[in-house]
Amino acid sequence: MKRARARILALVLALLGIQLSWLAAPAYACGCGAMVPDPATRISVSNEQSVLRWDGRREQIVMRLTVNGDARHAAWIMPVPHRATVRLGDPALFDQLATAMAPVHRTRHHFWPRDGDWPFDDNDLAADAPAPGGGSAVGVVDRQRLGPFDVARLTATDPAALEDWLHTHGFPLPARLRTALQPYVDRHWEYVAVRLAPDGTGGTLHGALDPLHLTFASDAPVYPMRLSRLASTPQSLGLYVLAAHRMRTRTAIGGMQPSVVFAGRVHPHGGALGALAAGTPYLTALTQQFPEPDRISGDHELVRAAADTPVQQVIYEDRLREVAGIPAWLLTVGGVLLSAAAAITVRVVRRSRRPVIPPPPVQPPPPISPSAPLG
């Protein structure tokens, strides 16, 4: 009971801390780029799913954000190494991915009873409890409306000029992001600026947004992460990678070591996953935590793993071993007890049937002779 109260208190304090952090400073970054809300409003990315497909010369990124907060508008910036095309993605892709990498359920039997098994099934136990420009400083390659997104594809040779353009055209950009963009300007990357606005008037950004599908040339697969160093709260990354072989990140870029939650070939029969996985059938699902976002040192570069070793989560269902519906341990213990009782019974019966040998007859002492002296 004390442990349960301590856990509840810890959960309440954690939730209170999250609320206070929202009031103190909004989360300006997510794993895929920079999320910038309107002034005096807040927005947080509660879930981010990104699929990266690389066929050796072209990269595609499909991402879906789930956001919470009270912002009516927000901007999101993502650097890309080459000119990108942008379109809406298919939300069914993520459901098909979840099906493709679903855990395997297996049954694991145990002999001796545990909590929940008879005779301990009446105990009230608490159970211990997750993706090159022209001559002007800023060039507008294209601007289009895609569902709830106002998308601008930009080039820039000066982060200050990029800041001015974004601010003028309704894409607010915090001043500290200017320095973070400088490495991309130096490498002549381009930018996909996205202004998110809900349909209708008076609404707020909430829930899962429509996926965005970016396509650009790339000699090596890369997932932009540098701008996430501006986040004020710990960040997490969930990334699906479709390639010809199993992939891994080159380094941890300042976060915890990435974990592989799934690796293996997918065999879709059609749909969004079938179209995306054609020619790149090997799926690697990675997760990574960034407790201190300001330590993020760059973008994720993905390289081929040493081997295409499959990885799949296995969920075990522990069951008490039974024989004809009777616990095996009970049969075993009962059998041993019955065997012991039978052995004792046989021993007693044999002893009772053993013939009793009478004792030898007692010989009386010889009579005393009358002529013997008395004293």
Helix content: 10-25%
Class inferred from helices and paired strands: alpha+beta
Instruction: Assign an overall shape.
Output: rod-shaped
Range of strand content:
25-35%
Structure notes:
There is one protein chain. It contains six helices and 21 strands. By secondary structure, the chain is of the alpha+beta class. The strands form five sheets. Strands 3, 4, 6, 11, 12, 14, 16 and 17 form an eight-stranded mixed beta sheet that branches. The chain has a six-stranded antiparallel beta sheet with strand order 1-2-5-10-9-8. β1 and β2 form a beta hairpin. The radius of gyration is 37 Å and the shape is rod-shaped. It starts with a helix and ends in a 22-residue tail after the last helix. The model is unreliable at 7-32 and 122-135 (pLDDT under 50).
Question: In brief, what are we looking at here?
Answer:
The chain has 375 residues and is of the alpha+beta class. It has helices spanning 2-24, 92-100, 159-168, 177-186, 271-277, 328-353, and strands at residues 29-30, 33-37, 43-54, 58-69, 74-80, 84-88, 104-110, 138-146, 149-156, 190-196, 207-208, 212-217, 222-223, 235-243, 247-249, 259-265, 282-290, 300-304, 314-320, 322-323, 326-327.
